[in-house]
Amino acid sequence: MGNNRRWLVIAIPYLWLLVFFLVPFIIVLKISLSDPAVSQPPYTPVLDFSNGFAGIADFFGKLDFDTYAFLWSDSLYINAFLSSLQIAVFSTFFSLLVAFPMAYGMARAPERWRAILVMLIILPFWTSFLIRVYAWIGILRTEGLLNQFLLWTGIISEPLAIMNTTTAVYIGIVYSYLPFMVLPIYSTLEKMDESLLEAAIDLGCSRISAFWLVTLPLALPGIIAGCFLVFIPAMGEFVIPDLLGGSGTLMMGKTLWNEFFSNRDWPVASAVAIVLLLFLVVPILYFQRQLEKESEVSK
Amino acid sequence: MKRFTWFNATSLTFGFAFLYLPILLLVIYSFNESKLVTVWAGFSTKWYGELLGNKAMLDAAWVTLRVALLTATFATILGTIAAYVLVRMGRFRSRTVFSGMVYAPLVMPEVITGLSLLLLFIALGIPRGLMTVVLAHTTFAMCYVAVVVSSRLVTFDKSLEEAALDLGCSPLDAFFSVTLPIIAPSVIAGWLLAFTLSLDDLVIASFTSGPGATTLPIKIYSAVRLGVSPEINALSTILISIVAIGVIAASLIQKRMAVRDGTA
Fold it and tell me: Residue A147 CA to chain centroid, in angstroms?
């Protein structure tokens, strides 16, 4: 292929992502270093090229870390961060508990079922996230279907208050991100050589210790991939804590949203975004490396 | 010999019940006569009728459809090129930056993507509306398309392309007459994925849309915040049916094409 043409093909998606993905982060970073102002746009300083170099120098001189110092000094933001971290870690763990037996069952199901089972796992992922979260409101509310059912069976005598609690957020996250956990685990378990298990049992392992010593270590890459795929989006989740968690549940994504839309404090919203991003940069890079490696191997 | 035990069967049953029961209940209660969503008062389709008379909802649906069609088309073109660059262009300088930009949006929290794009549009002085939502959706959807298409590109025999080039095809001809027909099922799958991603997105659309470009998820979200309503159940049922039919049809088409090409 001609060299010029080659560069043209590379340039199209490259430039697009540069302009619409990378440059916006630089703008967020810049605004996070600005101070809020009662003006349009609501921050200062604004880059002004009309004053030439002096204007630009002046602009850089006015950038500071005040917003970050403010985040650090206000327990609201620290609590939002800690509670995001807690919710993301626990819901990743709960997802794993639900997903692993499912993936294990799928991998052991007769071959002709497997394509359909995979399809059934993927299908909910295609239906609207918002609608799936909404479906849980009808189930979890005080007068909702779960309470009606439990009252009817006589298991409880008072309706449970699940809606607008952290429990509801856990249920929402586990439910919404379950396919992301099941699929990578399934793909490692499916490839597993069953004779390894037989060998372990022949050599005197019990079924349970064979599971711990053989199956689990072999499934580890899938488990790790699944955990990242749940943990990263859960950290920044907005819809689930907003609709199911009520006003008591603080999370970074919700804080960012409120700072931007309710308080119109762009520098604080930007700084929250940068903190969240810094925290997620390592898991995201790791995830990327895995994807890269995978595409290298299959080549 | 793999054994499918009772434990496996039970975990699959409970797992799938957990995945599907909420959706099933939502669909059932969309046919409920009563205004109180969770109290059953007999079968009725009146909420669907009510929905058809709701002009604001229909307008939002129309906006969403246009955004999703444009997004899916742009994202498929850009995503396919990106996949081609990732798989076929070998090493070039700053390839790592490029692959990073393709993979990162897949897991980037939506609030960050939404905020950063909005700030970009403001900085560039682009008025917010339907087109800004399309630009934003295209950017993250193209990355999904790139992943779907590149997974097909890596498995297909490069010598077919080389043969076409040896026989005198220009690279562009070779792409359209050899490569594209072979990767077509994944390109279609990518288009559908981009379409549904755009159809579903609330967070990025909320940040980047402007007056007159209220999408359906934004509309649903503001209705849901006020509580559950049977009308929203009816709307959700319609959306779920469209997606389910689309996905099942797409997988059947893909299977048939795979059988025809002998690459099942």
Answer: 29
Best CA proximity match to A269, nearest among A61, A82, A88, A34: A34
Q: Which helix (H) or strand (E) holds B23?
A: helix B6-28
- Chain A to chain B Cβ contacts (< 8 Å): 254
Residues A141, A125: contact at Cβ < 8 Å? no
What is the per-residue pLDDT across B175-229, written as a single tens digit (0 to 9) for each?
A: 888 889 888 888 988 998 899 889 889 999 999 998 888 999 999 998 888 877 8
Cross-chain Cβ contact B109/A98 below 8 Å: no
Six-digit token pair at A132? Answer: 């799936």
Distance from CA of A73 to the nearest CA of B (A): 23
Q: Answer whether A180 touches B (CB < 8 Å).
A: no
Residue of A122, A126, A259 to mutate, testing the B interface (most B Cβ within 10 Å of its Cβ): A126
Helix (H, G, I), strand (E, B) or coil at A157: coil
DSSP codes joined into one string, B138-204: HHHHHHHHHHHHHHHHTTS-HHHHHHHHHTT--HHHHIIIIIHHHHHHHHHHHHHHHHHHHHH--HH
| B247-263 pLDDT, tens digit each | 787 777 777 776 666 55
Token duo for residue A84: 């995001």
Residue the block writes with tokens 């094409």: B257
- Distance, in Å, from the CA atom of A28 to the CA atom of A23, rounded to the nearest integer, reads 9
* Dihedral sign for Cα atoms in the order B208, B209, B215, B219: positive
Q: How many CB atoms are located within 10 Å of the residue B163 CB?
A: 13
Taking the model in full, what pTM does it have? 0.87
Contact B23 A135 (CB under 8 A): yes
Task: For residue B37, list chain A residues with Cβ-Cβ distance below 8 A.
Answer: 138
